[in-house]
Amino acid sequence: MHDAAGPSLPEYSHTQQAPLCLLIYALAVVNFALGYLVEVAPPLMWLFPSMGLMLLILAASFQHLKVEDQGDVLRISFGPLPLFRRTVRYEDMAQVAVGRTLLLDGWGIHYSLGGGWVWNLWGLDCVEVRFRTGGKLRIGTDDAVNLAEFLRSKLTN
C-alpha cells in the first residue's frame, strides 16, 4: 500500500537510445522479405525467417539502455524487450568515476579487456563503478557526469 502522496519517483532515471537498432530492425525486415520471396529447398526455407526473428529479438533487446534509481539499488536494463538487466546495490559500491570505454570494448554486455564488466549501448562515455569486493562495472551512458554525481551522492549517504 502506498501513502497518500503515491509512489516516490526515482532520484535518477535516464534512457539512452541506440541508433544502430534501426539498422538491425531493417535487416530483420529484409530477412523476412527474403524468406517470403526466395524459393529454396525446405531445410533452407526457414533460414531467412529464423534469422529475421533473431535480429528482431536482438534489436528489441538492445534498442535502449535505461539506468534508474530504485531506492537502495541502481537498475540497469536494456529494452524494450527486458531480457538483459541487473541491479547494483549502492552499499556495494566503493568508488565512482566518469570514464571512457575502449573502442575494442565495443557495445553490449561483456567482460572488458581492462577488467570488469561493460554494459554499453552506444558511444564511449561511461561511469566506472568500483565495488568493495574489488570488481568493477562500466555503465555506458550519454549522461555520464549526472550519473556519476548521483552515484557519488549515494556513496556519502
Name the assembly state. Answer: single chain
* Main sheet summary: 5 strands, mixed
Class inferred from helices and paired strands: alpha+beta
The radius of gyration over CA amounts to: 19 Å
Average predicted local confidence, pLDDT:
89
Q: In terms of per-residue confidence, which ranges show pLDDT below 50 for 5 or more consecutive residues?
A: none
Keywords: Membrane, Transmembrane, Transmembrane helix
Transmembrane segments: 20-38, 44-62
Organism: Schlesneria paludicola
Protein name: PH domain-containing protein
Q: What does this molecule look like?
A:
The chain is 32% helix and 32% strand. The protein is of the alpha+beta class and 157 residues long. It has two domains: 18-61; 90-156, no CATH class. The strands form two sheets. Strands 5-8-9-7-6 form a five-stranded mixed β-sheet, covered by helices on one side. The chain has a four-stranded antiparallel β-sheet with strand order 1-2-3-4, with no helix packed on it. Helix 1 (20-37) runs antiparallel to helix 3 (47-61). It is elongated. 20% of the residues are buried. The mean pLDDT is 89. Keywords: Membrane, Transmembrane, Transmembrane helix. It comes from Schlesneria paludicola. The chain crosses the membrane at residues 20-38, 44-62. This is PH domain-containing protein.
Layout of strands and helices, then pairs:
Elements: E1 13-17, H1 20-37, H2 42-45, H3 47-61, E2 64-69, E3 73-79, E4 85-89, E5 93-100, E6 108-111, E7 117-120, E8 125-131, E9 136-140, H4 144-156
Parallel strand pairs: 7-9
Antiparallel strand pairs: 1-2, 2-3, 3-4, 5-8, 6-7, 8-9
Helix pairs in contact: 1-3
